[in-house]
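thread: overnight batch results

M.L. [08:02]
morning all. the overnight job finished for the chain we discussed friday. pasting input first so we're all looking at the same thing
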Amino acid sequence: MRTSHHADHDRDALVDRKRADGVTASLVLPARDEEATIARVLAAYLPLRDEGLLDEVLVVDSLSSDRTADVAGDAGATVVAVGEVHPAIPAERGKGEAMWRGVQASTGDLVVFADADVLDAGPHYVVGLLGPLLADPAVQLVKGFYERPIVAADGTVEEHGGRVTELVARPLLSLFRPELARLVQPLAGEYAARRTLLEDVSFPIGYGVEIALLLDTFERHGTAGLAQVDLGRRTHRRQSQQQLGVMAAEVMAAALSRLGLDPVGDAMHQFAPEGHAALDTPLRVAERPPISSL
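M.L. [08:03]
and the structure it wrote out:
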């Protein structure tokens, strides 16, 4: 697996290369109820638009109940609501849903995705992710990887993330697609791809979107179409075991459907740690069709 560090990609040189090649680049941030972090995240990325490395910075508001859209717009980003994009299909909650609509709402030949809840986002994320795409036309998808400390409510580091990766994604890949097990973080939320690829694949509407895109890229282009970049450090908030269980189920559904085993259930059945009350959470395993087919 071709691997680089974000420092290997010079910011000014990438701007020159992008202009010489005549390509455009968009940054898409799916966001739901992220008013507390979205302005700080955008402050890290918007200077790249002014410098010419990015042509647009687009926030896709995923049915937020807070002021995410207003805060993002005031910060200088272009904001679109999921329901405004391809309204013939009613919008649903889900990261993959927001990404699918974000691809349609954006215009770049190269599309970078980044999460809106990261506490230490920096411009080097985008620089590192665009570098391999601008350097080699064979590369279709670039995945980021990083150290992943998880911060508690008081700001202290409780542990490190990646439990769904290590307990679900990596075992599946090691058993069925061992070439992809060499990716450090196959479920990373920061990655970049060519529009031609993104418009040719289906998008799970939930948390299965990352592994689905990875498997579909590998199916079409093999490891020659993949690259990964060390982005340094990425700090995010802690999720509960129940939340991670739902995420794991959606990742498994997307992966197994691409391995020939379609899910038959549509809910995650769990139990509260105290009292053992039943918890049933709907799973977002539906998929949006390839944009090129619309």
